[in-house]
Amino acid sequence: MSIELQPLPPKGGDYNLENYEETAKHFDWSEVEKAFTFHKTGKVNLAYEAIDRFAEDENKKDQIALYYSDASRDESYTFAEMKKMSDKSANVLKEAGIEKGDRVFIFMPRSPELYFAALGAIKIGAIIGPLFEAFMEGAVKDRLENSEAKAIVTTPALLERVPVSDLPALEKVFIQGDDVKEDGVYLDFQSRLEQASETHDITWVDREDGLILHYTSGSTGMPKGVLHVHGAMLQHYQTGKWALDLKEGDVYWCTADPGWVTGTSYGIFAPWLNGVTNVVRGGRFSPEDWYATLEKYKVSVWYSAPTAFRMLASAGDEVVKNYDLSNLRHILSVGEPLNPEVVRWGEQVYGLRIHDSWWMTETGAIMITNFPTMTVKPGSMGKPFPGITAAILDDQGNELPPNRMGNLALREGWPSMMRSIWNNEEKYKGYFEFPGWYVSGDSAYKDEDGYYWFQGRVDDVIMTSGERVGPFEVESKLVEHPAVGEAGVIGKPDPVRGEIIKAFVSLREGYEVSDELKEDIRVFVKNGLAAHAAPREIDFRDKLPKTRSGKIMRRVLKAWELDLPTGDLSTMDDD
Ligand code: ATP
Ligand code: MG
């Protein structure tokens, strides 16, 4: 079963990756290393390759590295200034006794200081642990405790959610704010930053040394602490070049918060390793602010998420007409399945195609994507990145032929692969039950042209009357209906059919809940997809439960439906 849509041929243009098929045939990760200084010097530090090497380059040092804005700040920093501020930040951390390998958490809203703190910690060889600002005390405690964090950089407002006295390993709490009283544990990050020396001797590390510890989104359960190493930069760089198509002169905006892996791999590492100007916007989503940001900075490459595109679409097509988005040339999406309807909508309102990309916290960087020079099949995630081998395996680990739904797996050993799940060897081993393969936990199929089609989380695949139905296809059909803004689909146990399909739906602006509408939506899916795929039950909700990274939490829908405990909700967006 698949939604029939016309493939969209490449639009043509001057792209970094010209011929996907040829390149994929001959690609070798060890060649990528030649782009970096450490290839010659043997001295590795991601922060050096991302910032310092451009700050030392006469032609690049005065280029804007970071544009930052929110409701009260509007600033920009060149590569030279980013080097200065991250050197100062490295000195602040080092003088307080933070050393290589220590875990330094960063728990603050987006601000330039967040980026200085992160880069400074990387410069001294510490492992950074980003935390989303909305985390409450329990979530902060779990993560700091699990990783035995030695330091945290936070703000006065967030400090009350850091249970310092319950965390014996936590020695230093840096506070970014005014009038901070110091006492040996609590330290004034802002004034220390101002006073710190501008010269810093970077700590050279091994490419296998820890860089970042990311806790997953918590869509399926308790978040896991995923460790990535400096060597991951090879893939951050190369996917930035070929998938994001970053080049000299680009202004790039990744809308993800650095609390999630997209906000670091593609909000910090990939753009700066490629030497492009990076836009960061603080504050929450609003269609007007987002379009204003694209216009103001003349953004050329934009990386966002399906939920954001769906919300922009729900806001209507008129609002976009008030903004000049003529500098945009490439748009990408990640985090959830990208509904074909959203791709179609993007073509219509932006005149550009939204390119899907698939990867996970654990994979560290993009693994499957639609390259700009490729024919896009809307609804498909695209093809594996050169150097990546993907496959669909059955439950015994055998490769399945095309068009059969199974476990999406990846051949072990890409540069940005996680190196461990912190303090949980068992969990880590669980990903590698079939020798040589990393099993993602996602269900997908591959078509005869080698395109991958996401079906759902393995646990979310629905068995109804003997048919396997991926929730994504039903959801995608649902959002094609003019009244439907967002949809989440689950299997509900049923004595006769095994499971029935149940949909939770939020409506677009201007639509009212009614029985007629419910039936109309049901019939729409039945006629557009298949009778057995039409939801037998539809519940309307004002909004669907989502993670703060914007993913619909089907396990919460299921728990609501079946009256089960909802499990860890620390990552749920409850605004
Ligand atoms: P947890 O592992 O804690 O349950 P999570 O899996 O949502 O949470 P992330 O690592 O942030 O945590 O998300 C990775 C998952 O997001 C993938 O396994 C996949 O299910 C989904 N995903 C990411 N990109 C895409 C995409 N382009 N299409 C479909 N699904 C995607
Ligand atoms: Mg996951």
Structural commentary:
The chain is an alpha/beta fold and 575 residues long. The protein is 29% helix and 22% strand. The chain is built from 18 helices and 26 strands. The strands form six sheets. A nine-stranded mixed β-sheet has the order 2-1-11-10-12-13-14-15-16. A five-stranded parallel β-sheet has the order 4-3-5-6-7, sandwiched between helices. Strand 22 (462-464) and strand 23 form a beta hairpin. Helix 4 (46-55) crosses helix 5 (79-95) and helix 5 (79-95) crosses helix 6. The two termini are 37 Å apart. 52% of the residues are buried. The mean pLDDT is 94. The structure holds adenosine-5'-triphosphate (ATP) and magnesium ion. Residues 216-221, 223, 260, 334-338, 356-358, 360-361, 381, 440-442, 454, 457, 549, 551 line the site of adenosine-5'-triphosphate. Residues 216, 220, 360, 441 line the site of magnesium ion (MG).
Question: How are the elements arranged and paired?
Answer:
Layout: H1 20-26, H2 29-32, H3 38-41, H4 46-55, E1 64-69, E2 74-78, H5 79-95, E3 103-107, H6 112-123, E4 127-131, H7 137-147, E5 151-154, H8 156-159, E6 172-175, E7 186-188, H9 189-195, E8 210-215, E9 225-229, H10 233-242, E10 251-254, H11 261-273, E11 277-281, H12 287-296, E12 301-304, H13 306-314, E13 330-333, H14 340-350, E14 354-358, E15 368-369, E16 383-384, E17 390-393, E18 406-411, E19 420-421, H15 425-430, E20 437-446, E21 452-457, E22 462-464, E23 467-469, H16 471-480, E24 484-494, E25 498-507, H17 515-528, E26 537-540, H18 554-562
Parallel strand pairs: 1-11, 3-4, 3-5, 5-6, 6-7, 10-11, 10-12, 12-13, 13-14, 25-26
Antiparallel strand pairs: 1-2, 8-9, 9-19, 14-15, 15-16, 17-18, 18-20, 20-21, 22-23, 24-25
